[in-house]
Write a structure and sequence with these properties.
With 146 residues, this protein is α/β, with parallel strands linked by helices. The protein is 31% helix and 29% strand.
Amino acid sequence: MAFRGLGRPNASSGMGVADHSKNAFVELKLKKVYRYVIFKIDEKKREVVVEKTGGPAESYDDFTASLPENDCRYAVYDFDFVTSENCQKSKIFFIAWSPSTSRIRAKMLYATSKDRFRRELDGVHYEIQATDPTEMDLEVLRDRAN
């Protein structure tokens, strides 16, 4: 007996993950090539792909300005900070951006695909689910990292 589509992603398992997406994350994590990577779901290809990358010199404001106001995205951000002991540290945040103004279909698609995609990103320290910019403010990252 053959089962059709067993190897293909479906609504319950989420989307596939493009090799380029995994590679961009590894470059952010190990090589510090990017400050952030923004991912989107390509519904035609049925996979998570890189939408935008930000260089090491880009700021948190550049990152938040790159997220769409009314559509969902996944993102990873490499947050550099100094501890109370004056040590330079870096923590990687996974951000699931799902603004309240986005389409319900998009929210459902991103919600059902998040866990599978997140598991592909080995080395994320913290996860944030944000529906408006205040939920992922720079202070929120500082509080979580310390």
